[in-house]
Design a protein that fits this description.
Blueprint (H helix, E strand, L loop, with lengths): L5 H6 L2 E5 L7 H17 L3 E5 L6 H7 L3 E4 L10 H9 L8 H8 L1 H10 L7 E4 L6 H7 L3 E4 L9 E4 L5 H8 L6 E5 L3 E11 L4 E2 L3 E4 L7 H5 L5 E3 L6 H18 L2 E11 L5 E7 L9 H7 L5 H10 L9
Parallel strand pairs: 1-2, 1-3
Antiparallel strand pairs: 4-7, 5-6, 5-7, 8-9, 8-10, 8-12, 10-11, 12-13
Helix pairs in contact: 2-12
Length: about 325
């Protein structure tokens, strides 16, 4: 079913769909990008695959794309580095600009941004090589969560329930980052909020609740099993839903996101208080992904979602 006219499809020009890449999330990015590519082609858009791991920036410039859809996840695609290259090349792109992408990719930087705005996020400390771990335990208590702050898809994350396991959790996360995030564990429900748009026009889609086997929403349960359950719209009362969506939009705008992103939230079981976890500025678009699920709850097809995101492609740095 067509969601745009042939005239608009032609007006969007030659489109590059960037996926694959060199991050630890390459496999997921290939799934996301393949879905986006097929969706755009189904609408008569002149869309072409481009894998930055296999081709150079010179190749990207030579393709003379009129705009690109970024379906890369993680480093070298979601962290601002590619966005900077596209700005230099003058190629409009989907999603957030250089600074917002870099902040969103860094869980520590985004938490600091939210705290400065008075937005709720779990207490945390950072750990570096050789640090005494006892102050971490004293500050956060147990259980706590150890994370590699620049990874996504639950890569480099460990829940620590015993003090003697903290060193091993740190070592696992340190495979990916030099500075590690240790965060207070919030027992509660896992929610995620998709945001579309920019600034005052940014809007939240229905909340998705994630119910993973044994509460473990890891890499495998995200992408490769059907055991995880999703509820959309999440069974949350109207007033609390509106509050969570507002916090998510505020978090999105605090980081400076635009186009689209997904904000992950924990809803504490003890008192229904929400806590911001992270913002994903280039979220998954696979068959298991949460952004298409939220869009479907509003009656928006996968194809319509891809087209709306593509329409928002722009250059950011040249506007000022």
């Amino acid at each position: 079913m067509s969601v745009i006219s042939p005239e608009e499809a032609k007006a969007l020009g030659k489109v590059g769909v960037l996926f694959g890449g060199r991050s630890a999330e390459r496999e997921v990015s290939i799934m996301s990008g393949t879905g986006v590519l097929n969706a755009l082609k189904s609408q008569g858009i002149d869309a072409h695959a481009f894998d930055p791991a296999e081709r150079t920036l010179a190749d990207l410039a030579a393709e003379k794309f009129d705009r690109v859809f970024i379906a890369l996840h993680g480093r070298f695609g979601e962290d601002g580095s590619l966005q900077g290259a596209l700005e230099q090349l003058g190629i409009p792109y989907t999603g957030s600009g250089v600074a917002a992408s870099a902040i969103g990719m860094d869980k520590i930087a985004s938490k600091n941004m939210w705290l400065a705005r008075g937005l709720p996020t779990a207490k945390y400390v950072t750990i570096e090589q050789g640090d005494d771990l006892q102050p971490v335990l004293a500050a956060l208590g147990l259980p706590l969560v150890v994370k590699a702050p620049h990874e996504g898809s639950s890569i480099g994350i460990t829940k620590v329930e015993r003090a003697e396991d903290l060193q091993a959790a740190y070592a696992d996360s340190a495979k990916y980052d030099d500075t590690i995030l240790a965060e207070q564990f919030i027992a509660g429900r896992e929610l995620t909020v998709t945001i579309l748009g920019k600034g005052k026009q940014a809007r939240a889609l229905p909340i998705v609740e994630i119910v993973a086997p044994a509460g473990n929403y890891d890499y495998n349960n995200k992408y490769f099993t059907d055991d995880t359950q999703y509820h959309c719209p999440a069974p949350v009362d109207t007033a609390l839903t509106a509050r969570i969506q507002k916090i998510a939009v505020d978090a999105y705008n605090a980081v400076g996101c635009e186009g689209w992103a997904r904000v992950d939230v924990l809803l504490r079981s003890a008192d229904n208080e929400p806590f911001l976890l992270e913002v994903n500025t280039s979220p998954g678009m696979t068959g298991h992904s949460l952004v298409p699920m939220a869009a479907r709850a509003t009656g928006m097809s996968y194809e319509a979602l891809c087209v709306e995101i593509l329409r928002s492609a722009s250059l950011k740095l040249s506007k000022g």
